[in-house]
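name: query_chain
kind: protein
chains: 1
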Amino acid sequence: MSEHFRNGIRSSGLRLLVALFICASAFAPSETAAQENPDPEQVTYVFKRGDTLSGLASQYLRKWPDYVAVQRINRIVDPHKIPIGKPLQIPVYSLKYRPSEARLSAFRGNVSIAFAGRNLTPAMGLNIGEGSDIKTAARSFLTLQLEDGSRVSLPSNSQVRITRLRHILLTDSIDYEIAVEKGRIRSKVAPLEKQADRYRVRTPVAVSAVRGTDYRIRVDERSGTAFSETVEGEVVVASGGSLIGGQLISVPAGTGAAATVTGAIAKAELLPPPELLDPAKVQSDSELHFSIAPRESAVGHRLIIASDAGFVDLVAETEGQGAMLELPAIPNGRYFAKVTALAADGFEGMPATYSFKRQLSTLGGSADAGDFGYRFKWFGEGEGQRYYRLQILKDSKTSVPIIDETGLSRDTITLSDLPDGEYYWRVGVIQFSSDPEDPEAIEKWTDFEKLTVAN
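structure:
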């Protein structure tokens, strides 16, 4: 700051300070929505030897009138006589920053990313900046990787806006904020190392402060209630739009908070993880089927499939009220399933994660009489080498097979010498994976079918 400017401040006194403050307040920032609604939070900076208020303002404040605002907030009479070690409170919105980064690390289906009025083409590694609007359609998923290692995942039918994505220069800290407008998100937040680090999740009715947490938020489309659920760590939730001046609710792991449009917040214990029955079963049918052990406290269940244990690459999801959940076909491979119980009060419970193998292998059969005897035929879908086995039993399903043909590579066989009587038959398949690194084979059978022979 020049000597002329210092003399100007001294000579003009309180009137100039007030005028500068009014000028700062009247400034019309327009770069982001956050500037239109200044963040009331502040950071603390401890004054060091060699510091000057004007030097700090020049290096770390976004606009020079904020120099006066900092002086006023801290009740500094003479900016040239600030003692070493004095803590200064500085509004976050006035600090300089560099843009931080979010990269598209996984996506499937129909996702929409818009920035500055134009739509971006989704691509792995795409850099997504502050002010971006992100939407997922039905059966569509997306995961962002933030610069500090945190991840944000959007399941189907969700919509968010990245309102803050910054690295604050003064405190060398992050300032992230995501606004959930519709649907659900999961935040897997890396541990925040600095006191000034900030990760916020905002909904139309509440705001949450997150530090090193596995955390979910859902906005109910009908009621507008925002459900916050903590899986790991701890979250602080406040109704309205600010964490300052309102009632703060601590939401530790295993609990949730529901903020309504009236401003009320209710806490609840999350339901324990549900149990999948036979989770190691190979999912070989056309559709995937998962059986859940019934529990009276749950009104439904949600199931999410991912290709990785961290649930970055989401593949499919479903929810239902019964003990059986079905999902459409997915490619062969190794997957992870995360299942949660849904409570009557709207909260989603704690998750249980299972690994499973998907290898499509369907099988069906038919038998009919022809000119040369009885023809047995089988069919099915599945990648890899398939070998069939035909069994025919007389009089009972529990009798010893009178025909047991194994290692069949063709899909039909005709028998011309079956005596009159009642028979039960079935066909089986042994299918090897098309993946050379997977030596495990699948064996499955059709149900017994009855055949009456009358020559």
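note: Residues 3-26 form the longest helix (24 residues).
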